[in-house]
Specification:
Helix content: over 70%
Mean pLDDT: 96
Strand content: under 5%
Shape: globular
Distance between the termini: 41 Å
CATH architecture: Up-down Bundle
Number of strands: 0
Number of helices: 10
Radius of gyration: 17 Å
Bound molecules: 4-amino-5-hydroxymethyl-2-methylpyrimidine
Order of helices and strands: HHHHHHHHHH
CATH topology: Heme Oxygenase, Chain A
CATH class: Mainly Alpha
Low-confidence stretches: none
CATH superfamily: Heme oxygenase-like
Structural class: mainly alpha
């Protein structure tokens, strides 16, 4: 309950799990300037693979919004997100070449494969629009929250990583995440009990996969 909608209720209820995903040691090390650059490069290569998989996931959400949404502006928000991915993939290529990371030879690690398989499972037409828009919001919100921490006053983020942090930590991306949150809240408000339960599970799954994803940067697997 409360004025913040279901998402805020879940953020309160699961705040420790959420903090685990948004204040991961990799992010904290970027913010305090002690980041191990080989960890950053591992993250960069793996995230390029992830973002490529994110395109069909978003396409499936666009299709569900077109079929099921009661509000035409949902499609505009999702289409804006898809359009941004085009630029994002180009940015990854540019950034990888700047760091000497060869994207063409990178294989997805286990945690990345698991996360991508989860995205693929959400593409199914059996998975309700409300559930996928909740998962989509969570995926974007974790990056927005994480990288904006690295841009706060007093952070010691290395100059060469500021552009990366701005990609997800900028105000425009924050506004986009709030739009997704509003869509999710509006859908969750009218959702039957089983869809609510599945949406909360999807949210928690995203948080778990995000932690696994950050952990890959340690390069232990
Ligand atoms: C793993 N989660 C991961 N990668 C991303 N690029 C985002 C979220 C945000 O789009």
């Amino acid at each position: 309950g409360g004025g913040g909608g279901m998402i805020q209720t879940w953020l309160n209820k699961h705040r420790l799990v959420y903090a685990g995903a948004t204040r991961h040691p990799l992010i904290l090390s970027i913010r305090d300037g002690t980041v191990d650059l080989s960890s950053f490069k591992r993250w960069l290569g793996q995230d390029y693979i992830f973002v490529r998989e994110f395109v069909p996931f978003l396409a499936s959400i666009l299709l569900k919004a077109w079929r099921e949404s009661d509000d035409g502006s949902d499609m505009e928000v999702i289409l804006g997100g898809m359009a941004a991915l085009n630029d994002e993939l180009l940015w990854f290529k540019k950034e990888a070449s700047k760091w000497g990371v060869q994207l063409s030879i990178i294989a997805p690690q286990k945690a990345n494969q698991d996360y991508c398989r989860f995205l693929e499972s959400m593409i199914s037409s059996e998975v309700e629009y409300t559930v996928v828009i909740t998962a989509f919001w969570a995926i974007e919100a974790v990056y927005q929250e994480s990288f904006s921490i690295c841009l706060e006053d007093g952070s010691k983020t290395p100059a060469e990583l500021v552009e990366t942090c701005q990609r997800w930590g900028n105000d425009g991306f924050g506004e986009y995440c709030r739009s997704l949150q509003r869509i999710a809240n509006r859908r969750l408000e009218k959702a039957p009990e089983d869809v609510l339960r599945k949406s909360e599970e999807a949210f928690l799954h995203v948080l778990e996969y995000e932690v696994g994803f950050w952990n890959m940067s340690r390069g232990e697997t």
